[in-house]
Amino acid sequence: MTREMETVIQEHRSDDAYKYMLLDRLRMDCDYYLGAGGRNEKYLWSGSVQEQIDDMRRLYESFPAGRKPEWLTMEQIGRYEDEMLSEFHKTMEEIEDDLQRITQQVMGEMQQAYPSFEASRSSEDLAAAYTTELLSAKSQREYDECLWEYAQTLLQRDGSMGGR
């Protein structure tokens, strides 16, 4: 735990509102670190991933049993720790397999719903466009969100073009 957090907990021992706001700030820092922040620790209030997690745990534990935040649990803090400390990496082969699986799944669903449906060639171009974005994903969450966006875009493009 950082000295700053020790001081905050001491000075705001009974000020739950302040501690809620700070805990939410620490949580938002974690989200930013995992997303747009590019895993750069300079965006973390505590200065490093481990100190951020330690400070979140200590601050969370500073609330009395009946007043702990309902919007964040110790399990979620643990998931932040796992995700922030992991070295996320997908190989080109894994990305291509995931894109192919999703493409086949979407096309299969379209053919079931519309028996005369034929997949367009643009789905290959779309997959190629998403490959770069998937390669640059810095977390499993970011990777999964990108795959979801790909599936939605594929469904919209081929669905609205009638598969041609």
Explained architecture:
The structure is a single chain. The protein has 164 residues and is mainly α. It folds into 2 domains: 3-85, no CATH class; 92-160, no CATH class. 67% of the residues lie in helices and 0% in strands. It contains 7 helices and no strands. The protein has helices at 3-11, 16-34, 49-61, 74-85, 92-113, 122-135, 140-160. It is elongated. The termini are far apart. The relative contact order is 0.11. The mean pLDDT is 85.
Feature tags:
single chain, 164 residues, mainly alpha, 7 helices
Estimate the global geometry from the Cα principal axes: elongated
Q: What percentage of amino acids are in beta strands?
A: under 5%
State the secondary-structure class: mainly alpha
Instruction: Tell me the span between the first and last alpha carbons.
Output: 59 Å
Tally of strands: 0
* Succession of helices and strands: HHHHHHH
Number of domains: 2
DSSP summary: helix tally: 7
Largest sheet: none
